[in-house]
Recover the amino acids of this structure.
């Protein structure tokens, strides 16, 4: 009898233990579930961030074989096509005034845009990236900064009065990197802004619309076969014709060598115009004994025509050495 009671007790205890185990397991899982969800969310965010950084960095890694603080740019092989992500941008300056476009200018290639800024104006990083060069070039960029961006571009900011970043520093779009200035080969305060792909200068007007303080789209698809035509079209949309600069601009924003070349070009243009006018307008030097009648006859015209052209009367006495226009 006692043995039966003992067996019954053991059986009931075992059944209760077995029935309680799933409940305890369920309670443990229930308590653990919110923690698991939080950890999963954290892991997902962290993983996404890592993936985005890796993907962003890989674009530059695909294009550039080295990282150097020694040179501003070095051209390498361009891909036939490359999609440049322009999202997450910041305008380098709030100025809307372009004083010089990208392209051939006064006998040489101008490889960026000149944007009017004043000394001390804030210059900002155009995209997220890493500062590759912070340097000074007396006969060129002056105080300048080069940034290699996650989207594959490199941007150059020249003629600044002061640097606000250091080499190998990570920056975000819109971070201040320097102050506007007039250093290097420049006679007026302005920002020289370049956009380069694989070290090759691209027209910034294809990417940035300074007049509207915006980019030209979410993406720009660079295609080597169409780039030149697109660059010319982009210059036209900026609203300024090449070489249409005023004397005031010659004395302010132009580089010294460019200013000299432009002044010489204008001088040559005036000389050419003067020569043309001299060819178009012929003159007669009056000799002793000549009269209006004899001169008019010699030049194949009437006295009235000769007088009208020189604003004189028919009875006016002419003297030797006097110059008369006859065409």
């Amino acid at each position: 009898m006692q043995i039966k009671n003992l067996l019954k007790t053991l059986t009931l205890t075992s059944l209760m233990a077995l029935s309680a185990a799933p409940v305890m397991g369920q309670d443990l899982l229930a308590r653990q579930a919110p923690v698991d969800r939080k950890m999963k969310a954290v892991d997902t965010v962290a993983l996404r961030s890592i993936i985005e950084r890796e993907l962003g960095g890989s674009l530059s890694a695909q294009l550039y074989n080295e990282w150097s603080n020694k040179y501003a740019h070095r051209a390498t092989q361009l891909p036939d096509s490359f999609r440049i992500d322009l999202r997450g941008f910041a305008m380098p300056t709030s100025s809307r005034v372009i004083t010089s476009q990208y392209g051939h200018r006064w006998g040489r290639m101008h490889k960026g845009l000149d944007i009017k800024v004043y000394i001390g104006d804030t210059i900002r990083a155009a995209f997220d990236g890493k500062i590759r060069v912070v340097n000074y070039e007396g006969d060129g960029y002056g105080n300048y900064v080069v940034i290699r961006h996650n989207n594959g571009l490199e941007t150059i900011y020249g003629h600044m009065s002061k640097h606000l970043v250091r080499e190998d520093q990570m920056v975000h779009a819109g971070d201040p990197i320097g102050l506007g200035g007039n250093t290097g080969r420049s006679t007026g305060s302005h920002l020289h802004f370049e956009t380069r792909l694989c070290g090759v200068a691209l027209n910034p007007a294809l990417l940035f619309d300074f007049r509207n303080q915006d980019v030209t789209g979410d993406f720009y698809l660079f295609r080597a076969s169409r780039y030149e035509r697109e660059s010319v079209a982009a210059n036209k949309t900026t609203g300024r014709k090449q070489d249409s600069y005023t004397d005031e601009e010659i004395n302010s924003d132009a580089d010294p060598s460019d200013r000299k070349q432009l002044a010489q070009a204008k001088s040559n243009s005036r000389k050419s115009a003067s020569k043309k006018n001299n060819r178009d307008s012929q003159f007669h030097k009056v000799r002793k004994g000549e009269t209006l009648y004899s001169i008019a006859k010699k030049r194949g015209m009437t006295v009235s025509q000769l007088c009208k052209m020189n604003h004189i009367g028919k009875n006016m006495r002419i003297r030797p050495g006097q110059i008369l226009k006859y065409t």
Q: What stands out?
A: Residues 240-262, 275-280 have pLDDT under 50 and may be disordered. The radius of gyration is 39 Å. The chain is about 35% helix and 25% strand. The CA atoms of residues 196 and 273 lie 40 Å apart.
